[in-house]
Description:
Elements: H1 3-10, E1 16-17, H2 23-33, E2 37-41, E3 47-52, H3 53-63, H4 89-99, E4 103-108, E5 111-117, H5 118-142
Parallel strand pairs: 1-2
Antiparallel strand pairs: 2-3, 4-5
Helix pairs in contact: 4-5
The structure holds adenosine monophosphate.
Amino acid sequence: xxxxxxxxxxxxxxxxxxxxxxxxxxxxxxxxxxxxxxxxxxxxxxxxxxxxxxxxxxxxxxxxxxxxxxxxxxxxxxxxxxxxxxxxxxxxxxxxxxxxxxxxxxxxxxxxxxxxxxxxxxxxxxxxxxxxxxxxxxxxxxx
Length: 143
Ligand code: AMP
């Protein structure tokens, strides 16, 4: 199973924000959409950063409530690690584990085409393992 198959099942919508949105705007969007991260896009939809709920908590922990009126560009991660549709679940699990993050924007030809969270990965990995177990059971029953 690869990223393209996961996107086919979950859809390609990505919730984004602009770098000058305030941390409060971003927090409201995260809460309203019930998601853990937003991709930050600049001119022509180019990915310029990512902000997750962890960054919001860190910003408030370090700067207090004043952080909420500051632009998200002050707190986002600028070096965004992304993946491509052809990559396998194993590959993106390893990218997330090594990078210690739970969100992976999918980029093809400089265009943002989807996002995969650790929740999507775990869900599809379990489905894959269950399929293998049921195939093995069938094989043993008929053998
Ligand atoms: P997360 O586990 O996704 O909540 O993110 C933990 C930290 O990693 C936060 O500082 C995020 O800004 C950062 N982060 C999340 N996803 C990525 C990514 N794909 N590339 C780079 N940094 C990321």
